[in-house]
Amino acid sequence: MIPGETVQSMLPQDIPWWRPDYAIFFGFLYAVLLVIGSGLGLVVLNSVLEFVRKKKS
What we know:
- The structure is a single chain.
- This protein is mostly helical.
- It contains one helix and no strands.
- The protein starts with 19 loop residues before the first helix and ends with a helix.
């Protein structure tokens, strides 16, 4: 953390976001990470629901 910094963020603080190549790369990277995280979340949720259904019957 940079001294005096009060905001915590996932985004790197020293990247020039106004340059299109950085914005496109990191936009795509975070989109892919969001899709992967959502997929893993759905798999875990489906597993928990299946476990609960089998436990009831």
